[in-house]
User: What shape does this take?
Amino acid sequence: MKEKGASLQEAFIHASERNHSHMFRRALAHLTQVYEQGNRIKGERLRSLAREELARQRAKSKEFSGKLVTYSLMFIALSAIIPALFQAFIVVGSTFMELTLSPLQVLLIPALVFPLIDLAVLQLIRSKTPEFLKG
Assistant: This one.
């Protein structure tokens, strides 16, 4: 009778080669070790691995929440304060200085440029968000 497929260890090795996640590789290594040597306390190695991963995620979450404050302030400044200052500069500055902005430019900058900058900041925040927080 011919056997088809690979052994469990070979399957785990091939799976870890395809997936570059460090945590996934550690889990497969633990599963292989439990399969080969057994485990006196059922599931204890996987539970400890899960606890380590939760601790790592908590640390990353706290780190990101600290960074999120800075990103939020940057977003508020770029979406509200700077456009308001720009509009005030256009209104007040046009009476005292020779501005070379056309009426179309005055309309398009707040209508297109600032929202594009806001989208870029939101994309930056999204790219910095850890995967497990993206939901």
About this structure: The chain has a mean pLDDT of 87. Residues 62-133 form one domain. The chain is about 80% helix and 0% strand. Residues 84 and 110 are 9 Å apart (CA to CA).
